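4.2 Preliminary Data

To establish feasibility before requesting continued support, the project team ran the inverse folding procedure on a target of 575 residues. The structure was first converted into the token representation described in Section 3, and no sequence information of any kind was made available to the design step. The complete token record follows.
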């Protein structure tokens, strides 16, 4: 099946992507008639070496994102995963030569098509009298035996752009730049790991991976890797990658010894979430530190991608002070990160959390529910919510992210641990405040905040009071706080529908001689009816408000949960 792409046309996607980059970045301009991007200030290279690179599209932000002062002078782009045309490469060389460049260096990834096309353009430019040289970058550390074609060019190429760009900006000669970057290429290794294939626009995925598989050592065009393995944790995956990259029996390994300094690049291959990327980055730093390696700099982001491939590559460049100075040199290239000139470390100090002011402990009162009764009620509420976990998740899938049951179960487990560790406070205000703190800390999601708001506000009328009218006041105060900050009201298809229905009945607690259990039983029935009625409501607040009511068809999970909590409180008091 052909993958979905957000493009205008398959044939025009490479041109459109380059045009979009140029439209948004005044420092880049197109060369008319060619898929070539150049520095807008070409006059700035007069007397300096020009740096040209490129290759197939689909690796964005490479390569055009690295055009700028201190990096590339220009880039020649091919169609997706296709080497650029010889004529366009030659046109780019002519453009920089005519701008007064003191020689041109072509930085080319080690792929047959790129070598051939850039090589032919170089020969033709030399025949015209241009001073042109070429460096082939092969940083792939995947293959354990030597390949005739050599190591593939991967994300390490971006570091070569940076080193060469800093030298060129400082006025270094073409020979000096070639010598330095050629040495750097030999002191560099990259290895990729993917959870999914990619697909060229208009085509099917480049390969297939089972849901429980990952591919080690694949290329940036969807080429197969050296090993297919079961999905493992990020820590284990990173350890596997670094072990493979540095294994002396691997013909393409990078020799690392304790005390070495490296620049680390954690590169998103296109479709990995930045959450996962951060986890991988932390694992890489820790793993390198455990080997005695100094991570002098760490770059984390999307630097050389393979369309939408969900994967990551790790690049290591052995550096000395001179190379590090070139990495740190300023550049205007839009895709180069705002990199701090400081090492990466897993041992950063933490800011101490501010200490909370000690709260005045309210003594237990004999008029409120005792600690033992409170514990029984809470345990019944918790067992009720745990039993409903799957049901609440199912209700939530229609309108949310399907985690309402998980969220309430998380709260229930936290309360269970809390009451087993210490008897809950007997005083109502203290009990509700402690529960609010616990849910705000442990429950998570908007539900945790809403329950925390409710309990915090409800505790206020119960200070030094525990008569029945005080509990009616508490219900009023809790609901008002939820409405004030949550923005919902009765009729909006939220947990407030259940709570507001119960509140109306609980006003009877203000009547002298009211029977708590009788009033509460009626309130629970009203709350349950209100929760069921949300099935036919148009959502006015919360995530469900973005979904057509015709698609909901189920009662609101928050309203169902709130009614269930009230039912559990009643049953706990009746026991």
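Position-by-position output of the design step:
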């Amino acid at each position: 099946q052909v993958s979905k792409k957000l493009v205008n046309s398959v044939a025009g996607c490479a041109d459109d992507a380059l045009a979009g980059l140029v439209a948004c970045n005044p420092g880049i301009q197109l060369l008319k008639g060619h898929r070539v991007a150049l520095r807008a200030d070409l006059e700035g290279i007069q007397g300096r070496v020009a740096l040209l690179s490129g290759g197939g599209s689909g690796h964005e932000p490479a390569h055009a994102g690295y055009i700028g002062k201190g990096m590339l002078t220009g880039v020649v782009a091919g169609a997706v995963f296709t080497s650029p045309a010889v004529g366009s490469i030659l046109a780019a060389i002519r453009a920089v030569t005519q701008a007064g460049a003191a020689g041109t260096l072509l930085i080319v990834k080690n792929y047959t098509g790129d070598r051939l096309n850039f090589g032919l353009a170089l020969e033709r430019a030399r025949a015209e009298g241009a001073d042109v040289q070429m460096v082939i970058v092969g940083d792939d550390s995947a293959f354990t035996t030597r390949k005739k074609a050599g190591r593939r060019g991967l994300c390490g190429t971006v570091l070569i752009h940076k080193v060469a760009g800093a030298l060129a900006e400082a006025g270094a000669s073409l020979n000096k730049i070639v010598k330095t970057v050629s040495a750097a290429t030999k002191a560099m290794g990259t290895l990729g790991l993917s959870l999914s294939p990619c697909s060229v626009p208009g085509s099917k995925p480049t390969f297939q991976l089972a849901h429980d598989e990952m591919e080690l050592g694949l290329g940036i065009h969807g080429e197969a890797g050296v090993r297919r393995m079961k999905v493992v944790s990020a820590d284990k995956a990173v350890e596997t990658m670094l072990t493979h990259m540095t294994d002396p029996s691997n013909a393409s390994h990078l020799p690392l010894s304790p005390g070495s300094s490296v620049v680390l690049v954690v590169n998103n291959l296109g479709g990995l979430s930045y959450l996962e990327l951060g986890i991988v980055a932390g694992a890489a730093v820790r793993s390198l530190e455990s080997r005695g390696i100094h991570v002098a700099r760490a770059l984390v982001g999307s630097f050389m991608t393979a369309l939408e491939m969900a994967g990551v590559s790790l690049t290591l460049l052995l550096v000395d002070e001179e190379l590090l100075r070139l990495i740190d040199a300023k550049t205007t290239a839009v895709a180069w990160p705002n990199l701090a000139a400081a090492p990466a470390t897993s041992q950063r100090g933490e800011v101490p959390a501010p200490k909370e002011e000690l709260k005045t402990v309210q003594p237990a009162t004999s008029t409120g529910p005792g600690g033992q009764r409170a514990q029984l009620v809470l345990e019944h509420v918790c067992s009720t919510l745990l039993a409903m976990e799957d049901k609440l998740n199912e209700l939530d899938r229609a309108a949310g992210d399907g985690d309402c049951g998980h969220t309430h179960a998380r709260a229930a487990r936290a309360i269970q641990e809390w009451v087993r560790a210490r008897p809950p406070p007997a005083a109502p205000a203290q009990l509700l405040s402690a529960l609010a703190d616990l849910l705000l800390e442990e429950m998570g999601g908007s539900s945790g905040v809403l329950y925390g708001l409710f309990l915090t506000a409800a505790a206020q009328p119960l200070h030094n009071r525990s008569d029945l009218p005080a509990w009616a006041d508490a219900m009023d105060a809790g609901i008002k706080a939820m409405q004030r900050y949550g923005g919902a009201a009765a009729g909006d298809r939220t947990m407030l529908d259940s709570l507001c229905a119960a509140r109306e009945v609980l006003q009877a607690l203000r009547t002298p001689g009211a029977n708590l259990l009788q009033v509460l039983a009626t309130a629970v029935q009203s709350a349950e009816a209100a929760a069921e009625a949300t099935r036919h409501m148009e959502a006015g607040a919360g995530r469900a408000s973005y979904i057509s009511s015709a698609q909901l068809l189920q009662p609101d999970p928050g309203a169902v949960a709130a009614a269930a909590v009230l039912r559990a409180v009643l049953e706990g008091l009746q026991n």
